């Protein structure tokens, strides 16, 4: 038996908090009866409806995709562009991306049909370390990279401290390769951070998400997370949240 709001969140209908609102608003039914109490628990055999639509019972699935450049981090696109779910034609479950990578950014992206899991990883308090490698125009000065490390002010607020390492430079082409580790998820954050210190990002790749890497995958390929990996990444998010709460 599980709490009703948890079952709704896992189905990807809404976050657990939003699911609680749906219940209190009388928009959820269990076995044909409206439920407005948050303490209700349901079993796999119970019929749950949200806004008169039956909740489809799907087994939770978790995938790691090496997203190529030129792909939208969405389940559909009104312009007809390729989306990340196009790489899973044989998957019957209604999977969706956990967060997003920009159209021109490649790298590691998680997909699932478990709404609760996705919301846990995307919650601002639980943000996990993400490692990016950027090819940028010019050769950044050490003092400017330190600005990124300390946090830099963007139009939507100051970024949290980051870890930055200059990996290589090409003086002839006037380009550099820089590794940056962040734990936030602002829109186009890494690109905007480098633009703020005067360096346009030419290429960007997310190489690691927590302890998960792209090892063994080529662009466009995916694999299912093992049960152990899924439990580890969930525990990591909860641990990060706990440590920040106590700090």
TrEMBL record:
GO terms for cellular component: cytosol. One of its GO terms (molecular function) is rRNA pseudouridine synthase activity. It is an enzyme of class 5 (isomerase). One of its GO terms (biological process) is enzyme-directed rRNA pseudouridine synthesis. Residues 2-65 form the RNA-binding S4 domain. It holds the Pfam family S4. Transmembrane segments: none annotated. SUPFAM superfamilies: Alpha-L RNA-binding motif (SSF55174), Pseudouridine synthase (SSF55120). InterPro entries: PsdUridine_s_RsuA/RluB/E/F_cat (IPR042092), PsdUridine_synth_cat_dom_sf (IPR020103), PsdUridine_synth_RsuA/RluA (IPR006145), PsdUridine_synth_RsuA/RluB/E/F (IPR000748), PsdUridine_synth_RsuA/RluB_CS (IPR018496), RsuA_PseudoU_synthase (IPR050343), S4_RNA-bd (IPR002942), S4_RNA-bd_sf (IPR036986). Its EC number is 5.4.99.-. PROSITE patterns: PSI_RSU, S4. Keywords: Isomerase, RNA-binding. SMART domains: S4. Belongs to the pseudouridine synthase RsuA family. This is Pseudouridine synthase.
């Amino acid at each position: 038996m599980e709490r009703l709001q948890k079952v709704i969140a896992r189905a990807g209908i809404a976050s657990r908090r939003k699911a609680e609102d749906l219940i209190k608003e009388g928009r959820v039914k269990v076995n044909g009866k409206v439920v407005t109490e948050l303490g209700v628990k349901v079993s796999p055999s119970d019929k749950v409806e949200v806004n008169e639509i039956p909740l489809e019972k799907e087994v939770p699935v978790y995938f790691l995709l090496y997203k190529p450049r030129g792909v939208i981090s969405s389940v559909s696109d009104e312009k007809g562009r390729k989306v990340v779910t196009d790489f899973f034609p044989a998957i019957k479950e209604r999977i969706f991306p956990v967060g997003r990578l920009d159209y021109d950014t490649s790298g590691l992206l998680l997909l699932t049909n478990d709404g609760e899991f996705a919301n846990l990883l995307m919650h601002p308090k639980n943000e996990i370390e993400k490692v990016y490698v950027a090819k940028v125009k010019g050769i950044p000065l050490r003092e400017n990279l330190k600005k990124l490390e300390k946090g830099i002010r963007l139009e939507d607020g100051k970024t949290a401290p980051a870890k930055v390492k200059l990996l290589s430079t090409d003086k002839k082409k006037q380009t550099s390769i820089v590794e940056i580790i962040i734990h936030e998820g602002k829109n186009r954050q890494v690109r905007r951070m480098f633009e703020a210190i005067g360096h346009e990002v030419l290429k960007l790749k997310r190489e690691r998400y927590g302890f998960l890497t792209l090892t063994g995958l080529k662009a466009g390929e995916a694999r299912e997370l093992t049960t152990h990996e899924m439990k580890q990444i969930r525990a990591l998010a909860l641990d990060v949240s706990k440590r920040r709460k106590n700090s």
